[in-house]
Structure to design on (1054 residues):
C-alpha cells in the first residue's frame, strides 16, 4: 500500500541557511502521525515545505502518488491538504463565520459541514458573529482547526495545537482531534509527549533537519532512551 | 558589498588590483584634455576637447550626487525619494548667495555645508521615524514642498520663481566658459576628494554599523547600536555631499532653476545608482558617466523622443540587470573564481 | 479604541480649523470652500483608495498609479474627440484578449495537454512577436488578417504563459466560461466588422451619452492597463520589493513620455456633459434638474454643478467599495490578505490572481478619477504626478491598506487644500501684523505636507493603519 503522503529526502533552504538536510517521512491514510523533535529541529519547516511555502531545493514530495514539490501553496491546498500553522493564523478582522466561509473551496462547503464543525467546537457556534481578533487563544486555535475542516481535505497538517493552552482546553482539543481520525488523515506536530502518545498511531522524529527514526507509537513508548535523547529536552522546554 | 567576515586574501588582492586600476582611470581622466587635444589636433581649451570636458564636468558633478545617494540606498538600505531637496538646496543657496549677497566661494562653501547639515538633521529627525516605503513617501513629499516653494511667486525677488536665477556672477578665475580647463580640474578634484572621504567613512567602524543596519536592523539594534542615530548620520552625511554637488552644479551651469528640486532630479540619482550598481562607491559614479553618455547618444539618435527610450531601457535594467554594471561584474568575477555562491547582498 | 480616538482627534482638528477660518468668511463662501474641498477630496480618494488597497494587500507602492489616472483622462478625452481611432485600436486589444481567453479556457478544459517547457517558451516568444508585428501593421494590412494574427498571438502567449489548474473546475462552470469566451470572440469580430458604423454613431451622440460612455471606456482602459502591468512587469519582482518600486517609477517615466508622444505636451480641454453644461445659474438643485445649468446657487454664491457631481461620484464609489469589501468573497479575501497573505494561500486561494484583480480594480478607480477630473482640471501630461503626490499624502495620513482611512485622509487633504487656498489668497493676518499678507496657492500646496508630517509624528502608521 502506498502512503498518502510520502516525503523523500527533502532539503530546504531559508535564505542561505540550510534548514532541512534530508527529511523523509510517510503518512498512511486514516492514521494520525506525530512529527516529533525538539525546538528548532525543523518540524515547522517540514510542514511549510510540504505546503510549498518554503519549496524544497532537493528531494521529492508525493501526495496520493502525485508529485507536489514545486507546486504553489494554493495548489497544494487545492489538492486536499489543510494547514494549521503554529501561530494563531486566523483573520482578526473577519468574523468567525467569515473565517470559515473563506476556507470554502466550493460553494456550499460550509453549509454541508456546519453541523459537524459546530458539534465539534460548540463555542464557535456561539461566537459565530464575533471578530476573530476578539476570541481567546483557545478559541482561536479551535477556529484555526475548524477552518481546515470546511473543505473536503484528505490530509491535515497541524502544528503544535496545544501550545500555550490551559489544561481544560487541551483536553477539549485532544478530544476533537481524536474524533477527526475517522474523517481524515493527520500529520501532527506536538511537543507534549503525553498528548502525542494518546493521539498518534505512528511517529517520525526529526533532529537538526534530518529524520532520525520512524515507527509506531507503541515502539516509541517502549524505547525511553530514544524519547529521552531526542525529546527529553523538549518536554521540559529548552534548557 | 562582501561581508567583512568573508574577506580573505584573494579579496584583498582584488582590492589592491582595484586601487591600481582606479589610479590608472584617474590618471587617464587627468590627462584627458591633453589626450583629446592630441587626438583631435585642437588646443585643450577650445573646440571638441573643450566640449568633451564639459560633458565630463557634468558627469563628475552627478557622480558625487549619485555617490551621496548610494550612501543612503546602497549602504544604509533606506530608500529616499527626496534627495533632490539637498541637491537643489545646494544649487539655490549658491546661486542666491552669489547673486544677492555676493559672498566669496569659501564663505558659500561653509554656508552650503551648514545649511544642508541643518536641513539633514531636521528632516532626518522627522522622517527617519518611519520606515520603508513610508520613508520614501515622506521624503518625496518634503522634497516636493521645496520644489513647490521654489516655483512660488511669493519669493520671486529671491528665487526668480518658475524662471529660476540666471547669469549668476561666478568669480572670474573659475568661470566655466573662459576657464574651462581649470574648472575641469576643479570638478575632477572635487569628485576625487569626495570619493576618498566617502571611502574612508564607509570603511570606518561607523560605516560598518551602517551596513549592518542594512543587513538586519533588528540585529544591529540588539547588538546595542543606536540604529536611529546611525541612520541619521548616514542621512546627514549623504545630504551634505548632495548639497556640495549642488553647489558645483550651480557654479558650472551659472543658474538655478526649479527643475533641480523636482522628482526627476531624485530619479536621476536613482537611475545612476541602479545602472552603476548600488552598494558600491564606484558604481554610482560610473552610472553617472554612463547616464550622461547615454543621454547624449540617445538624444542625438532619437531626438526629442529619447526619454521614452530611456524609460524603456531603465525598465529593462531593473528587470534583467538588477545589480547594475559594477554589481553584475563583481558577481560574475566572484562566480568565475569560486565554485560556491558568495554571500553578496542583493540591495 | 485607539483607532477611533485618532479619527475623532483628526475630525476635531478639522472642525476647529474650519471654525476658526470660517468665522471671518461669509456663509456662502464658507460653503463654497467646503464644497471645493470635498470635490478635491473625492478625486484624491479615487486615486488613494486603489493605491492603499494595492499596498495593503501586496506591499507594492505603485508609483504608476498617477499614470493610470492620467491614462483615464486621456482615453476619455480621445473617446469624446475621436471615437473612431480609439475603436479601431480597441479591436486589437479585444482580439488579443479573445485569443488568450481561449487559451485559458482550453487549458482549464484539458489541463493535461499543457505544452512542454520549451514549447511554452517558444509559444510566448512567437506570440509576443506576432502581436508586435500586428500592432505595427494594424490598419495597414487587411483587417481580417490582422485580426486573426492578433488573436493567434494572444492564443500563443496564453498557451505558453498560463498555468492550468491542478484540479479541474466543475463542468458547469467550464461550460459557462466557454460561453463567455465565445461571446468575447463574437464581440471582437462584430466590432471589427461594424467599427466605422459604431464610431460614427458614437460621434453623433449627445454630450451626456458621450460622457457616460467615456467614463466606462476610460475606467476599462485603466483596469486593463493595470492588470497587464501587474501581470507582465510587477509580478516577476515580488521577491525584490525595492526593484518593484523602481520599476513602477520607470513606468511613470515611460508613461509620461508615451502620453507626450501620442497626445502632445499642451493641456487639452474636455467638454462638460450637457447635464452640467448650460451657461446659466440655477437657483436650487431642484431647478437644476430642469435647467441643467453649469452652476447652482448655494447660500447666495454660485458653485459649479459638475463639481457637485464629482462629490456624489466619490461618495458613491466609497460606498460601493465598502460594500464590496464587506459583503463579497473578493472583499473577504482582500481583508484577510491584507493581514496574512500566506495563510490565505494555504486555504487554497490563488492570491496572485487576486493581486491582478485588485490591481485592475485600483487602476480602474484611478482612471475613473482621471475621467472625472478631466472636465474641470483639463488633461495634461503632468497631471499624473501632481495628483499622485497628493494621493500619497492621503494614504500616509489614512494608513496603508484601509479604504476608510483613504476616505478620511482624502477629506482632510482636500479640505486643507481648499481652505489653504482661500486663506493664502485672501491674506493672512496675525495679531502682530499691520496688514494681511497675501500669498500664492503654492504655499497652501506645500503646506499639505505639514499635515502629513504631523500625522506621522503622532501615528506613524496613519490614522487607520495598524502598527506592527
Ligand atoms: N526565517 C528563518 N530564518 C532563519 N532561520 C530560520 C527561519 N525559520 C526557521 N529557522 C531555523 O530553522 C530551524 C528549524 O525551525 P523550525 O522548523 O521552526 O523548528 P521547529 O518547528 O521544529 O521548532 C531553527 O533552527 C530555526 O532557527
Ligand atoms: Mg515549530
Amino acid at each position: 500500500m502506498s502512503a498518502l503522503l510520502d516525503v523523500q529526502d527533502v532539503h530546504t533552504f531559508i535564505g542561505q541557511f540550510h534548514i532541512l538536510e534530508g527529511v523523509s517521512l510517510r503518512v498512511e491514510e486514516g492514521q494520525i502521525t506525530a512529527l516529533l523533535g525538539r525546538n528548532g529541529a525543523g518540524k515547522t519547516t517540514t510542514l511549510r515545505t510540504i505546503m510549498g511555502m518554503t519549496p524544497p531545493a532537493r528531494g521529492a514530495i508525493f501526495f496520493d502518488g502525485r508529485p507536489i514539490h514545486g507546486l504553489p501553496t494554493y495548489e497544494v491546498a487545492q489538492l486536499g491538504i489543510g494547514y494549521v500553522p503554529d501561530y494563531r493564523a486566523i483573520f482578526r478582522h473577519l468574523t468567525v463565520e467569515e473565517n470559515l466561509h473563506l476556507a470554502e473551496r466550493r460553494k456550499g462547503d460550509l453549509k454541508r459541514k456546519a453541523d459537524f464543525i459546530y458539534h465539534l467546537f460548540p463555542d464557535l457556534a456561539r461566537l459565530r458573529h464575533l471578530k476573530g481578533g476578539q476570541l481567546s487563544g483557545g478559541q482561536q486555535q479551535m477556529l484555526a482547526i475548524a477552518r481546515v475542516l470546511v473543505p473536503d481535505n484528505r490530509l491535515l497538517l497541524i502544528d503544535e495545537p496545544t501550545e500555550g493552552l490551559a489544561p481544560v482546553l487541551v483536553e477539549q482539543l485532544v478530544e476533537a482531534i481524536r474524533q477527526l481520525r475517522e474523517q481524515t488523515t493527520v500529520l501532527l506536530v506536538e511537543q507534549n509527549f503525553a498528548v502525542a502518545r494518546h493521539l498518534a498511531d505512528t511517529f517520525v522524529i526529526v533532529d537538526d533537519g534530518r529524520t532520525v527514526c520512524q515507527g509506531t507509537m507503541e515502539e516509541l513508548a517502549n524505547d525511553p532512551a530514544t524519547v529521552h535523547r531526542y525529546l527529553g529536552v523538549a518536554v521540559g522546554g529548552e534548557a | 558589498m562582501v561581508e567583512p567576515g568573508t574577506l580573505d586574501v584573494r579579496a584583498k588582492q582584488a582590492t589592491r588590483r582595484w586601487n591600481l586600476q582606479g589610479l590608472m582611470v584617474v590618471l587617464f581622466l587627468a590627462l584627458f584634455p591633453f589626450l583629446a587635444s592630441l587626438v583631435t589636433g585642437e588646443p585643450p581649451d577650445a573646440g571638441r576637447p573643450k566640449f568633451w570636458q564639459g560633458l565630463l564636468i557634468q558627469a563628475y558633478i552627478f557622480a558625487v550626487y549619485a555617490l551621496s545617494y548610494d550612501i543612503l540606498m546602497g549602504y544604509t538600505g533606506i530608500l529616499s525619494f527626496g534627495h533632490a531637496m539637498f541637491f537643489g538646496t545646494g544649487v539655490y543657496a549658491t546661486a542666491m548667495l552669489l547673486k544677492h549677497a555676493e559672498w566669496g566661494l569659501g564663505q558659500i562653501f561653509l554656508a552650503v555645508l551648514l545649511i544642508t547639515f541643518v536641513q539633514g538633521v531636521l528632516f532626518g529627525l522627522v522622517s527617519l521615524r518611519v520606515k520603508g516605503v513610508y520613508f520614501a513617501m515622506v521624503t518625496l513629499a518634503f522634497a516636493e514642498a521645496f520644489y513647490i516653494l521654489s516655483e512660488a511667486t511669493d519669493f520671486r525677488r529671491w528665487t526668480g520663481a518658475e524662471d529660476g536665477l540666471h547669469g549668476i556672477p561666478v568669480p572670474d578665475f573659475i568661470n566655466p566658459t573662459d576657464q574651462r580647463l581649470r574648472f575641469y580640474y576643479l570638478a575632477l578634484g572635487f569628485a576625487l576628494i569626495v570619493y576618498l572621504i566617502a571611502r574612508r567613512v564607509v570603511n570606518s567602524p561607523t560605516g560598518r554599523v551602517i551596513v549592518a543596519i542594512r543587513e538586519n536592523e533588528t540585529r544591529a539594534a540588539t547588538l546595542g547600536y543606536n540604529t536611529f542615530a546611525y541612520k541619521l548620520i548616514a542621512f546627514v552625511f549623504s545630504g551634505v555631499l548632495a548639497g556640495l554637488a549642488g553647489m558645483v552644479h550651480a557654479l558650472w551651469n551659472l543658474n538655478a532653476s526649479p527643475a533641480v528640486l523636482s522628482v526627476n532630479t531624485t530619479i536621476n540619482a536613482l537611475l545612476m545608482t541602479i545602472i552603476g550598481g548600488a552598494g558600491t562607491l564606484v558604481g554610482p559614479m560610473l552610472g553617472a558617466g554612463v547616464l550622461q553618455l547615454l543621454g547624449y547618444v540617445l538624444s542625438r539618435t532619437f531626438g526629442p523622443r529619447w526619454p521614452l527610450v530611456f524609460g524603456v531601457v531603465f525598465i529593462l535594467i531593473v528587470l534583467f540587470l538588477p545589480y547594475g554594471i559594477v554589481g553584475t561584474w563583481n558577481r560574475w568575477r566572484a562566480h568565475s573564481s569560486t565554485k560556491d555562491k558568495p554571500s553578496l547582498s542583493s540591495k | 479604541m485607539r483607532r477611533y480616538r485618532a479619527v475623532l482627534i483628526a475630525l476635531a482638528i478639522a472642525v476647529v480649523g474650519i471654525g476658526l477660518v470660517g468665522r471671518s468668511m461669509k456663509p456662502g463662501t464658507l460653503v463654497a470652500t467646503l464644497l471645493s474641498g470635498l470635490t478635491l477630496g473625492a478625486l484624491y480618494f479615487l486615486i488613494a483608495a486603489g493605491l492603499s488597497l494595492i499596498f495593503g494587500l501586496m506591499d507594492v507602492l505603485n508609483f504608476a498609479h498617477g499614470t493610470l489616472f492620467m491614462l483615464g483622462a486621456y482615453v476619455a478625452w480621445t473617446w469624446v474627440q475621436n471615437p473612431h481611432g480609439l475603436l479601431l485600436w480597441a479591436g486589437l486589444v479585444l482580439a488579443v484578449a479573445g485569443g488568450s481567453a481561449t487559451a485559458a479556457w482550453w487549458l482549464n478544459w484539458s489541463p493535461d495537454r499543457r505544452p512542454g517547457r520549451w514549447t511554452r517558451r517558444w509559444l510566448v516568444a512567437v506570440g509576443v512577436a506576432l502581436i508586435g508585428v500586428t500592432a505595427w501593421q494594424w490598419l495597414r494590412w487587411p483587417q481580417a488578417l490582422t485580426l486573426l494574427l492578433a488573436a493567434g498571438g494572444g492564443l500563443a502567449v496564453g498557451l505558453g504563459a498560463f498555468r492550468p489548474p491542478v484540479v479541474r473546475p466543475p463542468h458547469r462552470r467550464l461550460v459557462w466560461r466557454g460561453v463567455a469566451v465565445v461571446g468575447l470572440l463574437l464581440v471582437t469580430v462584430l466590432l471589427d466588422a461594424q467599427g466605422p458604423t459604431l464610431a460614427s454613431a458614437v460621434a453623433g451622440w449627445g454630450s451626456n451619452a458621450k460622457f457616460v460612455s467615456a467614463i466606462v471606456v476610460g475606467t476599462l482602459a485603466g483596469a486593463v492597463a493595470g492588470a497587464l502591468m501587474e501581470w507582465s512587469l510587477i509580478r516577476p519582482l515580488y521577491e525584490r520589493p525595492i526593484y518593484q518600486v523602481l520599476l513602477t517609477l520607470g513606468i511613470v517615466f515611460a508613461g509620461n513620455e508615451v502620453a507626450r508622444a501620442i497626445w502632445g505636451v499642451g493641456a487639452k480641454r474636455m467638454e462638460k456633459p450637457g447635464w452640467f453644461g448650460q451657461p446659466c445659474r440655477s437657483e436650487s438643485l431642484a431647478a437644476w434638474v430642469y435647467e441643467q445649468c453649469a452652476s447652482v446657487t448655494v447660500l447666495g454664491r454660485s458653485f459649479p454643478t459638475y463639481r457637485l457631481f464629482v462629490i456624489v461620484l466619490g461618495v458613491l464609489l466609497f460606498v460601493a467599495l465598502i460594500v464590496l469589501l464587506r459583503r463579497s468573497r473578493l472583499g473577504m479575501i482582500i481583508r484577510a490578505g491584507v493581514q496574512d497573505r500566506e495563510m490565505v494561500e494555504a486555504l487554497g486561494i490563488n492570491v496572485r490572481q487576486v493581486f491582478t484583480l485588485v490591481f485592475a480594480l485600483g487602476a480602474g478607480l484611478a482612471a475613473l478619477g482621471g475621467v472625472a477630473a478631466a472636465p474641470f482640471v483639463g488633461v495634461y501630461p503632468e497631471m499624473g504626478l501632481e495628483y499622485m503626490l497628493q494621493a500619497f499624502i492621503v494614504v500616509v495620513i489614512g494608513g496603508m491598506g484601509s479604504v476608510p482611512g483613504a476616505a478620511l485622509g482624502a477629506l482632510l487633504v482636500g479640505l486643507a487644500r481648499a481652505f489653504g487656498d482661500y486663506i493664502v489668497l485672501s491674506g493672512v493676518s496675525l495679531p502682530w501684523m499691520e496688514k494681511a499678507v497675501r500669498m500664492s496657492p503654492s504655499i497652501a500646496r506645500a503646506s499639505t505636507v505639514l499635515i502629513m508630517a504631523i500625522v506621522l509624528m503622532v501615528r506613524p502608521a496613519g490614522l487607520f493603519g495598524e502598527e506592527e
In short: Confidence is low (pLDDT under 50) at residues 233-239 of chain A.
